[in-house]
Each structure stands twice: as structure tokens, then as C-alpha cells.
Amino acid sequence: MTERSAAPYAGLGPDQVLDAVAAAGFEPDGRLLALPSYENRVYQVGIEDGPGLVAKFYRPQRWSDAAIAEEQAFACELAGAELPVVAPIAVDGHHLLRHGGFRYALYPRRGGRAPELESSEHLAWIGRLLARIHAVGSRGSFAHRGRIDAETYVRAPARTVIASGLLPDLHHGRYRALTAALAERIDEAFASVAPRTLRLHGDCHAGNVLWTDAGPHFVDLDDARTGPAIQDLWMLAPSAEALDALLEGYAEFRDFDWSERRLIEPLRTMRQIHWAGWVAARWHDPAFPAAFAQVGEARWWDQHLADLAEALDRLDGAAH
């Protein structure tokens, strides 16, 4: 493992962040605030005589340049369609910038508060916007960003967990059997629904939707992938009633395949397994053991396997 992969942001301090912003032609005023992010490093930067910016430094070796370019182009396409998506700023015609060995992008600062997911009015509003986002997403395709499927979200993270050393040895056999069975059930569920796939936000949870008096706007397309429309809806619905409100708004602008509701439980399970694999893959980054210390304990894995067994029971029950 290289020094960069073991501590990918060791060379990124406040001075380097400010220098990168200055190199893009802006004049930082010295104010710098780290924003919550584990995968990348994101900072709010004050600018002399102008509105603040957000600087996003991409995790080394995660996405290829081509994949980042697709994410940025999709955000710009959505913003160009007058959708409330925060898109990167072009500097000399480029959105993907480089400085000090890091790739980064600059965004206009757009604040906001969490949406009220108990409000049918807020949910319908979000649903209408997601329908319009998906209408744009359906016009093209990703070539470099991958798909939301069992290989990406179950089999690959399971291999990472096994190789990481975090999972206690006595659980290896059961974990392999559970994740293999879950991947099979998920493949079957997707095959039975055969959903239309399109370019998605990909990680559309409440933290990536910010609300202002003008309504919601969407941030952070870092996990944009190809998948079914329901992927961008289910995480915003804490109840069946909330999902109905979202879909009521959605249907005003775009047809929804109601059979995709059967994919919610598979997608929920995929997210659980993917999250464990993500933490295992990043365990060498000092930020991860500090933030997710519980994953280093055997009892966390005991509970994770119990959760996976319950998920398998639910998927088996839904299939009959």
C-alpha cells in the first residue's frame, strides 16, 4: 500500500486548500470550514469581495478522471435544465481541477436546512423535482460510473470485508453464505421487475437535499450511477405514506413503474452490505477508525450478520 492510499489526505492541510482555491483564480479571505464528508474532503472557503465557495477534493484512486467528468457533466446538464442541482464552477473551461497532486472542483455555496420528510407538501415537491431530474437522466447514459446492482453493492463489498481482517474469522463461513444468498435473491428481484434504468443522483438521502424558502435543492452527485428510479426515492420515504406522497408528486411529471416498489427491500439490503464494505475498504484512512470505531468490534459484526439473516428472511418472504 502506498503512502497516499494509506493516508490519502495527509498532504491536504488548510494552506493547501487555500492555495488550490487561489490557483483557480479566486482570492480566499482566510476563512475555512471543513464540511462533513468522509469519502472526499470538502471545505467552505470565504472569498474576498464575493460569495463563499465550496471546494471538494476527490479521494485519490476512487474514480477515474472520465468518471468524475461524467458526474460533473450530469450536474451541469441538470442545472442547465433549470433544476435546483448545485453544479461545479468552470475555470478556464474545466470543471475538474488539479493542484498539489489532488483533483478538486469548486462549487457555489448553497446553504439550507434538512427537508421535512413528514410533510406531504415537501415530499410531493421533492417528488416533482426528482421526476424532472430523471427525465433528464433518461436522455443519456453513463459509460464510466457503474451500475446499482448486486455485483457492485453486494458481491464486491463482501469480498472487501472478507479481505479486510475486520470480520472475525469464526464468521467468515456464515458471512459468505449469507451474502451469496442475498446477492442471488437480489438478482432475482431485479430480473422479476426488469426496471428501466437511467442516470441517477444515486445517493439521494435527506442529507443531500437542502431546503430553503425557495424550496429544495440537491447536492453531491458523487455516487451518481445507472439504476432504477426507485433508488432516488426510497431513502427519502420514512413510511409508506411518505412514499405515496413522493410518488404522487413524481407522477405529475413522469410515469413511474409501480412494480419498482418491490425493489425497496433489496435496495435497503444492498445499502447495508455496501456500507460495511465501504468502511472496510477505507479502514486504513485514519478518519474511519476514529469515526466508526464500533466496526472494529466483534459485537458489531455479530449484529450485522443478524441483520443480514433477517434481510434474507424478508426477501424470501417477499418472493412467495
Note the topology.
Elements: H1 3-6, H2 14-23, E1 28-35, E2 41-47, E3 50-57, H3 65-80, E4 97-99, E5 102-108, H4 120-137, H5 150-164, H6 172-193, E6 197-199, E7 209-212, E8 215-218, E9 226-228, H7 240-250, H8 264-281, H9 287-291, H10 298-318
Antiparallel strand pairs: 1-2, 2-3, 3-5, 4-5, 6-9, 7-8
Helix pairs in contact: 4-7, 5-6, 5-8, 6-8, 6-10, 8-10
Task: Characterise this structure.
The longest helix has 22 residues, at 172-193. The model has no long low-confidence stretch (mean pLDDT 95). This protein folds into two domains: 3-108, 2-Layer Sandwich (Phosphorylase Kinase, domain 1); 120-318, Transferase(Phosphotransferase), domain 1 (Orthogonal Bundle). A hairpin with a 5-residue loop joins strand 1 and strand 2 (41-47). It has a five-stranded antiparallel beta sheet, covered by helices on one side. It has a two-stranded antiparallel sheet with strand order 6-9. The protein has a two-stranded antiparallel sheet with strand order 7-8. It is built from ten helices and nine strands. The chain has helices at residues 3-6, 14-23, 65-80, 120-137, 150-164, 172-193, 240-250, 264-281, 287-291, 298-318, and strands at residues 28-35, 41-47, 50-57, 97-99, 102-108, 197-199, 209-212, 215-218, 226-228. It is globular and about 65 Å long. It is α+β, with helices and mostly antiparallel strands and 320 residues long.
